[in-house]
Amino acid sequence: MRVLLAACLFAASASAHHSMAGFDRNKTVTLTGTVKQFKWANPHSWIEMEVTNDKGSMDVWNIEMTSPAVLIRAGWKSSSVKPGDKVTMMAHPLVTGEPGGIFVSVTIPSGQTLTDRPIQPAAATPPPRP
To answer: Which of 44, 59, 76, 99 suits a disulfide with 71, CB 3.0-4.6 Å?
Structure first.
């Protein structure tokens, strides 16, 4: 059974790699749980987190992210999220209803919210006129 589940997850992630059709971009879910694993890897990083579902049991959500190079430009480090961290994640869910999705943002234990959008430099203040 586990092999079948792993094969299905791999197939879903492989097909989603080149298309966003596997994600419901019209919905955003908010997940609160514990980071099980953070994979800082190319071509996509991943956050795997344990979330208590509405029946009281634990679901493992696999959230696909962008590449480490893009995350670095957004202010991330490979240590920004660690196993055991209690986080709140926002994601566009899989269209299948399975526990997975594509990353939107994460609020880490410090209260900081991280996204995958590049950090914008502060606008320069023009010097005062003489």
So the answer is: 76
Q: Tell me the CB-side half-sphere exposure of residue 5, using CA atoms within 13 A.
A: 6
pTM of the model: 0.75
pLDDT in tens, 44-96: 999 999 999 999 999 999 999 999 999 999 999 999 999 999 999 999 999 99
Q: How far apart are the C-alpha atoms of 50 and 57, rounded to whole Å? A: 10
Domains of the chain: 22-114 (2.40.50.140)
